[in-house]
Amino acid sequence: MQLNLRKFIDMLSSTIDKRWRYSFRRDVFHWVLRMSIKMPLEPLVKSLLFKGLVSGAIRMKSGLMSDIRSVGLALAVISSLVQPAHAGTHTTELSIIDSQKSHSTNSTQLLGQRNDSSITKVTAVRVNSTAKGIEVILESPNAETLKPVNSNQGNSFIADIPNAVLELPESKDFSIANPANGVVSVSVTQADANTVRVTVTGEVGLPTAELFDSEEGLVFELAPVVSVQPPEQPTSETERSQPPEQPTSETPPEQPTAESDEPIELVVTGEQDGYRVPTASTATKTDTLLRDVPQAIQVIPRQVLQDQQVRRLNEALRNAPGVISNNSERSPFEGFTIRGFSNRNIIRNGLRDDTNITTNVNIENIEQIEVLRGPASVLFGQGGAGGTINIVTKKPQSTPYYFIEGTIGSFDTYGGSIDFTGPLNDDRTLLYRLNASAYTTDTFVDFFETERYFIAPSLTWLMGKNTELTLEAEYSNQKQPNDRGLPARGTVLPNRNGQLPINRFIGETFDEIDKNNRQSLRIGYNFEHRFSENWQFRNNFNFSYLSVDQNSLFPTELSDDDLTLERGLYVSKFAQQAYNLDTNIVGNFKTGSIDHKLLFGVDLSRDISYQEGRNFLRELDPIDIFNPIYRRESAGADSPEDADAPTISQGLGIYLQDQISLLENLKLVLGGRFDIVTQKLENPLGASSQQDEAFSPRVGIVYQPSEAVSFYANYSRSFQQVTDLTSNRLFVPERGTQYELGMKVDWTDNLSSTLALYQITRSNVLFTDLSDASGRTSLQAGEQRSRGIELDITGEILPGWRIIGGYAYTDAQVTEDNNIPEGNRINNVPEHAFSLWSRYDIQQGNLQGLGFGLGLFYVGERQGDLNNSFSLPSYVRTDAALFYSRNNLRAALNFQNLFDNEYFEAAEGDLRVYPGAPRTIKFTLGWEL
């Protein structure tokens, strides 16, 4: 009888207005909770259902609303009775659970159990404006199986939906800030392997929520509290006749009462724009929970970038332990080490793009930065052994959002940016986004000015329920001189003439002598189509073009008097083109009781570097580093021109990966990739080329003794083809092998950490020939090894208190080499490094909206070159910030290097030591709608 009764109720409910299907009065709710414990199920259900139906039929002619209330009452009773009561809590379950399972399944079990046959996929999330506030729609082919469980605590609405997974077109969680007046943020995330969480944070009060379903999916309608309102006056004669509600000591203030006509308020503490991101695609090329990935990976979200007001990628990576800058913050390039090794593997939305290294990465268009530690050739082909940085760009959103921001700061710093997104048509199938920025600063170095201009439009076309196409473009223009740092003698080493000031500029102040102008253009698309719930096709393409006009001034030798610095000048115009195409299929299937997530793909790449003008060396007068005189006449005669030697690199990669769930708490990842790469150097005397084949495996295992803890181990390899462009010499490909053990812990739903132990062996290493002062010649060493421990933590400790940071111990040294002594430490790699950024926002009271930020960044002593001839001292940099947000206004005051400590970021030999910036203050004012 239970099954037939359920079908009958479902049939009736389908005829009722959708907004009454799950919404019911508080008095009914409390009566049901009391009676569900005391009364038998069948007699009560039949009696109430019969009474409601008969009563509704008699009053059919008098109005539809009476019918709705009667049937709604019956449905409410049935829904509550078939679920177990949760005495002593504020949890309200608003979904109808099959009565056959009601006595064996509670909400805790629902969150912890997994039955793949009952997993429901949420394929899209939309946020629409309504007369009351907003509605959040979870689209799903089986929306009727989504059964939310809600909790009341704090200042936000949260609904956990067990036995559900997010598979959004963006391949990540959904979040949006300030979608309506009174709503701070809306996010839909994967709380754990089988639970989707909806969080809506109110600004000044607790949102009121109504739940209903429709043909579109599961719908949450939320009415924010914009201001404190007096109690609602009764409207009906019955309500007027009832006495006013009197508080009692037995009823907590937030408990619903029998006299209230409003829908139940479902409120819980939530974090607006939180730091913790539970999923990432870099490690597996699939949307996988970080706790299920057998490799260390850290995500730096957009909120951290905004809170710290970083302007380039190197600054953002300070938040990742073990990632250390190996060039100046004023460099036109991106350069850093990961796990002790220099990194040249920066990908964008999962696609290789070497122009990310040869020009600055613009922060304004970044949604999050994913740091994958260790080799990743199994998915991305050529790459360094230390790790991979994946830049995830912002995507168009279906809800309109407009943000404008301006910055003013120390050293005549001025900047501004915009971020606009929303639909272009009424049915929201065409979505756009536009990011743009302009930034200028004089910097603390004399005569060193930079300008950067950037624009990034994107368009998403929702071609159908299962098909989506996103087009993206990005143009940037940066102008600056070359930062060549200062000699070690006079900075970190003694100089008989005294100490050099950190603002000293050893270049020339004239563009015709010293300049570095770079323009880049990127165009690409991302196409996705779902054949079914289990099979998906993806095709991604990216084209990049970089044009460089550079007069590169470089130091060659510091004379014995410690005064005179010999210099050279290299004049060049060159361009780089990169084409990358990746096509893959993702499928979910079973072999018996074992789950598989299979990834099969093919990618193609082509990279061309060539000259656009004359490339030649020019004589340049030396300079007195303690009394510099800058002159146009310092440039002398031209040296013979370099031969036009374009470089063409091509690659074909075929990869296969299987994520296997052997048991609920035991997962295995097997992957392999075969690459064929060719490199060709052309010059007037002929051409030289080289082809290499490489197989890159990965094996990983994850064991989860509980939902909060994961132990993992992995073995992976990498390869990278290397070339000396100056001597037109090709080298043997570099190889890397890693063994890693680790543990991941979710301390709470909003706080997680990773502990990793690893060893990486790197062979056939390419490094700079120190005998060539120009730094343009390379040699190939024997072997280097890195061992270490890493600990990172990200998330929310208490409501309003967020942190990101960690500690890294790195033992990176030369183990085999013909020229470098064995045991020498690898340059620019500290043995100890620590970073911690924390932000706290006042949650209530007159100071609500005020926030504070504090950051500590420690970098230990490290060597300045592979010969270990000198070292850079350790340092601690302290950053701080004040934040204020109210309604649409956002203001921030950031202090970098608060205590004005002198420190050195990195060194490239004893002639190029890069000092860090002194105290810097930035004020940012933003407005968002």
Descriptive overview:
The protein is mainly beta. It has 3 domains: 120-223, Immunoglobulin-like; 290-393, TonB-dependent receptor, plug domain (Ferric Hydroxamate Uptake Protein, Chain A, domain 1), CATH 2.170.130; 401-638 and 659-928, Maltoporin, Chain A, CATH 2.40.170. Helices cover 9% and strands 50% of the residues. It contains 9 helices and 54 strands. The protein has a 22-stranded antiparallel beta barrel. Helix 2 (26-38) runs parallel beside helix 4 and helix 3 (41-58) runs antiparallel to helix 4 (64-81). The longest helix is centred in the first third of the chain and has 18 residues, at 41-58. The chain is globular and about 80 Å long.
In short:
It is found in: Cell outer membrane. The chain has 929 residues and is mainly β. The chain is 9% helix and 50% strand.
Kindly list the characteristics that best describe this protein.
929 residues, mainly beta, Immunoglobulin-like, Ferric Hydroxamate Uptake Protein, Chain A, domain 1, Maltoporin, Chain A, 3 domains, 9 helices, 54 strands, globular
List the helices and strands and how they pair.
Elements: H1 2-13, H2 26-38, H3 41-58, H4 64-81, E1 92-93, H5 107-112, E2 120-122, E3 124-129, E4 134-139, E5 149-151, E6 156-162, E7 164-166, E8 174-180, E9 183-192, E10 195-202, E11 208-213, E12 218-223, H6 237-241, E13 279-280, E14 288-289, E15 297-301, H7 302-308, H8 313-316, E16 323-325, E17 336-338, E18 341-343, E19 346-348, E20 351-352, E21 366-373, H9 377-380, E22 387-393, E23 401-409, E24 413-423, E25 430-441, E26 450-464, E27 467-480, E28 515-530, E29 535-558, E30 564-591, E31 594-611, E32 616-624, E33 635-641, E34 647-663, E35 666-683, E36 686-706, E37 709-720, E38 723-724, E39 729-730, E40 734-748, E41 751-763, E42 766-768, E43 778-780, E44 783-798, E45 801-816, E46 832-841, E47 850-859, E48 862-863, E49 871-872, E50 875-886, E51 889-896, E52 904-907, E53 913-915, E54 920-928
Parallel strand pairs: 2-7, 19-22
Antiparallel strand pairs: 1-5, 3-4, 4-12, 5-6, 6-10, 8-9, 9-10, 11-12, 13-14, 15-21, 16-17, 17-18, 19-20, 21-22, 23-24, 23-54, 24-25, 25-26, 26-27, 27-28, 28-29, 29-30, 30-31, 30-32, 31-34, 32-33, 34-35, 35-36, 36-37, 37-40, 38-39, 40-41, 41-44, 42-43, 44-45, 45-46, 46-47, 47-50, 48-49, 50-51, ...
